[in-house]
Amino acid sequence: MAPEDKNRATAAAILPLVGGAANVSSIAHCMTRLRLGLHDRSLVDDEALKAVPAVMGVVEDDTYQIVLGPGTVARVTPEFEQLVEEGRTAAPAPDPAATPDSASASASADELAAQGAAMKAARKAKNATPFKLFLRRIANVFVPLIPALIGCGIIAGLNGLLVNLGWLTSVTPALAAMASGFMALIAVFVGYNTAKEFGGTPVLGGAVAAIIVFPGVANIEAFGQKLSPGQGGVLGALGAAVLAVYVEKWCRRWVPEALDVLVTPTLTVLISGLVTIFGLMYVAGEVSTAIGTFADWLLSNGGAGAGFVLGGLFLPLVMLGLHQALIPIHTTLIEQQGYTVLLPILAMAGAGQVGAAAAVYFRLPRNGSIRRTIKSALPAGLLGVGEPLIYGVSLPLGRPFITACVGGAFGGGFIGLFNQLGDKVGSTAIGPSGWALFPLLDGNHGLGTTAAIYAGGLLVGYLAGFLATYFFGFSEDLLAEFNVSQEPAESTVAATGGPTTGPDSPAKEPAGV
To answer: How distant, in Å, are the alpha carbons of 133, 266, 286 from that of 11?
Structure first.
């Protein structure tokens, strides 16, 4: 099957299982997940979705998220959007008042009992706090920039290697331009995306943010100091674009329609630009400098302790949605120093997850279902795609999720220790982790040293996660429940013709969220 046909087949398999085109209110995707807004979540068949070959797992948050993995999600999403558009033209939107009966047809009594309306409402309310919603909006600004950060980061690493080796001297200046061009103008892209996310005109947000990187600001003095092009960086661009959105909305409300096309853009750029030049650039510049200084101080003085805490807490932060607050911090560090020293430490959380999954594999020799899940998800986990292992193995089991965090803590502590000793390990982009981070590594002591320290951290994370899970990840009750053969269940089905619904049921328990 051609790749295009395979992607369309995946999209076609997913669509009816989320209630059809009429049930889809919005479509987006991040690095690994197809994110859907749904009119009625009770129409979703979770178990059938998990059984689709390309689906690694599902996550229910403010949107319904289907984990497809990097690369795949970017190819399936356009096909899914096309199918939804075709479906909408062929069928009317659903009547909300008419959904209860159909919902009961698509969800079993057990599923409804397990996921009752009260629990779903509580989860939705918990994840819809103003602070978390704000963090998601900030993440939506930066996530679309990740592919460019990765591409330019890899080119920067390749260029650095060629320069150090003295090879292709006529080509390295061109590679340097490719690697640096995007970062030189990243503030413009942040401004554009910010205005789009907060409901303004994207190009006006980009226009105001462009002031920050314009060379001519070097001739302007604010707070008794000459401004520098790029001062304030992505944080300044974010603030400038948000301000532009509010100024634009105010103008739309008060400016007469006949003058709107001339007055509103002019006032938006003028007012927001003046505040940016004589206020935001200086303030954001101080904040950005403080972030870089604090990160350096934290790892220089906290060392292994700081790395231990950061590596151990990252998975819980992801589960709470608070990791999104780190995205602008990473981007600020990359903009300032050329790399972020935090990402390699946080990536150790994935190493702990891999080690924990390996221990689960050996501790449950009779559970063929979980072992098959681990074998299929482990390659993705080694490359930094952790959702299949998190949502398919460790989190449903409980204790292994905690011991995976322990593995991440020890891996983070290892890298933090070397940072304290003066060997910085950083990443030139955000997004990848695990083995996929090697091409993006950078530091202050050469690529070989940096890669060796990062590899050592991964090994420590694998080992610590494995040992913690193997010896402390299972209670006797948990082993008794999950370390069982699937054969009796299959024999029972063959003999009785009825489905097996006990705890031995093949993929139900480990696939739960």
So the answer is: 28, 44, 47
